[in-house]
Design goal:
469 residues; mainly alpha
Length: 469
């Protein structure tokens, strides 16, 4: 009774304080709207709303990564990935439909960026927060953040005022992640980014190893981002482009986008189906929904809505080609297992590497699996023929099952860059005639080594943090 009596007034006091704060915030919004303009009042209201929500949920930018590393709690990082995906779903159509008004932000890697990153990181450690975190912490009453906030603002103003001096210190050109080398990296980062990825997940699932969309993306996040930075820079250094500046490209792109006009109902329906599939694939486990079922739902919606017709479906030669590979090769792989070839091969490989520890044995298996792609002209064919066998051997020699399944799945994408026939887009780009066979193979071989070092080296440390081994 005493606790209830004591707690009652305290609870009422907190409620009164919250009502007073909300009232003060609304008065401030109305004052800004009346004195400056309704647009700025609305922006202030949105900013206050974001701040209250993020403060209430204790969600920020640096905090989830700290929780991931220190306490191995992946929820915040997964929320980051989902937020990035949802923003991209909205931003990309806006950039496409309003090319004359909106532009994607691109910036080169230079001394200013590298120096600023180190200074920013050091200051984050001192005040225990980034820019938005400092603002939220200051609003929550943290004295360190309250003192740091004005200096943060002054520093930002000073840096912006002298921006040209900093950028003139030197930088690399802006690099867009395109072509085969960028495609294979991004394909390795997401379960649904390449046709054979769900097949690898299914083959692993048949062995009792569950790979989720979120688990795949989280494990590939750090090595994938590093590869996306290192590989384009390496290509630019070793094989620099003949044309390094295209001043008229932006204008030309905007003119073409203006000719296309704004997005119509079919485009918006396609966008909606894409968001639906993204949600179903990400939360498929919680919804007990198979990835194939989700894809069929999306196709059905597109057909029923008239966005696609059966003629459009029949003309998708790449999709039918994938279907044939899946049906025939998966059946062949199944019968190879039933007839004893894969168990025999697994036993033979296990004997060959069984004398070593699992780390050395798995390294040998991974490299053999990676470089055997010189013999294949399709990722799906390679995965169908060899993934299950090598995964079985890796598990047999003591490799942590999920680690083995993910590494082999990542390599099932990364090995595509070695040859001009190793994956679907490669022959198309090679056919343009800008790169000869010898150059493609030499660069592909070198980049394969770089990717292996990044994914097994830095990636291995990241997977240790995630607890995969």
């Amino acid at each position: 009774m005493t606790q209830a009596t004591t707690g009652g007034p305290a609870g009422r006091s907190r409620s009164v304080q919250r009502v007073a704060l909300v009232g003060a915030a609304l008065l401030l919004v109305l004052a800004v709207a009346a004195l400056v303009g309704a647009r700025y009042g609305l922006l202030l209201l949105i900013g206050l709303g974001f701040g209250i929500v993020l403060e209430g949920l204790r969600f920020g930018f640096a905090g989830p990564w700290r929780a991931m590393i220190v306490r191995r709690e992946p929820g915040g990082v997964m929320a980051h990935l989902l937020a990035i995906g949802l923003v991209a779903v909205v931003a990309i159509p806006l950039l496409a439909s309003h090319g004359s008004e909106l532009m994607g932000a691109r910036a080169p890697v230079g001394f200013a960026m590298i120096g600023g990153a180190f200074v920013f990181g050091a200051c984050m450690q001192i005040v225990m927060g980034c820019g938005s975190g400092t603002l939220v912490n200051a609003g929550s009453g943290n004295p360190v953040s309250f003192v740091a906030l004005p200096f943060f603002a002054l520093g930002s103003f000073a840096g912006s005022y002298h921006l040209l001096w900093w950028t003139d210190l030197g930088s690399l050109p802006v690099i867009a992640f395109d072509g085969v080398q960028g495609t294979v990296i991004t394909s390795a980062m997401f379960l649904t980014a390449m046709a054979a990825n769900p097949l690898a997940a299914k083959l692993a699932g048949d062995m009792g190893i569950e790979i989720t969309w979120g688990g795949w993306a989280l494990a590939a996040l750090v090595p994938g981002l590093i590869s996306l930075i290192v590989v384009p820079l390496l290509i630019y250094k070793l094989y620099p482009p003949e044309i390094k500046e295209t001043p008229g490209a932006t204008k030309f792109a905007r003119e073409k986008l203006a000719e296309m006009g704004k997005m119509g109902s079919n485009e918006w329906m396609m966008l909606g189906v894409f968001v639906l599939l993204l949600v179903l694939w990400i939360f498929g486990k919680q919804l007990s929904l198979n990835a194939t079922t989700a894809a069929l739902i999306g196709l059905g919606v597109l057909l029923l809505s008239g966005v696609l017709n059966w003629t459009d479906v029949r003309r998708e030669e790449g999709a039918w080609d994938t279907l044939i590979w899946f049906s025939a090769l998966v059946m062949m792989a199944t019968f190879l297992s039933k007839l004893g070839l894969i168990p025999w091969f697994s036993e033979w490989m296990g004997t060959a590497v069984g004398g070593s520890g699992w780390l050395v044995a798995f390294l040998i298996l991974s490299l053999a699996y990676f470089y055997s792609h010189y013999l294949f002209a399709s990722n799906t064919a390679h995965v169908s023929a060899m993934y299950a066998a090598f995964l079985a051997v890796a598990v047999a020699v003591g490799t942590p099952p999920l680690l083995a399944a993910l590494v082999l799945a990542f390599f099932s994408n990364l090995f595509s860059s070695m040859t001009h026939y190793g994956t679907g887009p490669a022959p198309v780009l090679f056919g343009a005639g800008f790169v000869d066979t010898g150059t493609w193979w030499k660069l592909g071989g070198l980049i394969s080594i770089v990717n292996i070092v990044i994914w097994l080296g830095i990636g291995g440390l990241w997977w240790k943090v995630l607890g995969l081994w």
